[in-house]
Amino acid sequence: MSNSIHLKRGLDIPISGIASLKASPVAADVIAIKPTDFKGLLPRLLVKEGDRVLAGSPVLADKNCPDILVCSPVSGTVQAVVRGEKRKLLAVVVKADEQREYVDFGVKNVETLSTDEVREAILASGLWPSLIQRPYGIIANPSLKPKAIFMSAFNTAPLAADTDFVLGSEMSAIQAGLIALGKLTEGGVHVCIDGDKAASTPFQTR
Known about the structure:
Blueprint: E1 30-33, E2 43-45, E3 52-53, E4 58-62, E5 69-71, E6 76-83, E7 89-96, H1 115-124, E8 132-133, E9 138-139, E10 149-152, H2 163-167, H3 171-182, E11 189-192
Parallel strand pairs: 10-11
Antiparallel strand pairs: 1-7, 2-4, 3-6, 4-5, 6-7, 8-9
């Protein structure tokens, strides 16, 4: 039986209105990939100005763990490499194509993948930086086996997008992801949902 954990601390900011439940297509012309968005990453640049990249092409690697990659979310041309004091890497700016092109990582059956194959697939696709290791909130170390994995299925930030609305139609893909993550730990994968609407969220059945 699952346990209900009620958090008593925090503050509800009195902002009027709520985010409307509608989605509009947005395509940015220029995107910036910033190493500072990935806590614990010691970036090594893998591209230079003028290089052509696809969505899924590696742009940065971690100097301490070269298998950890940060990939471009769009296809296009590297427009600028922005540096600050002492040549600190601040951003990689990509001018996006009108038509997106993607790296093909192939379709995998998560049911038959081994732990190492799951880890390698997540690393190669550039998704590993989205796995955060506690208590320090840094990118997870791929050489360590976590005691457990927690996936947050709600966001309490003011005017945050409704997770059920955004991802409710992707439950089969999310289930496949949970199965894959489950192979990285012996402690299980815990899906955290909003207790105020636990009876109605599609994540309740995962």
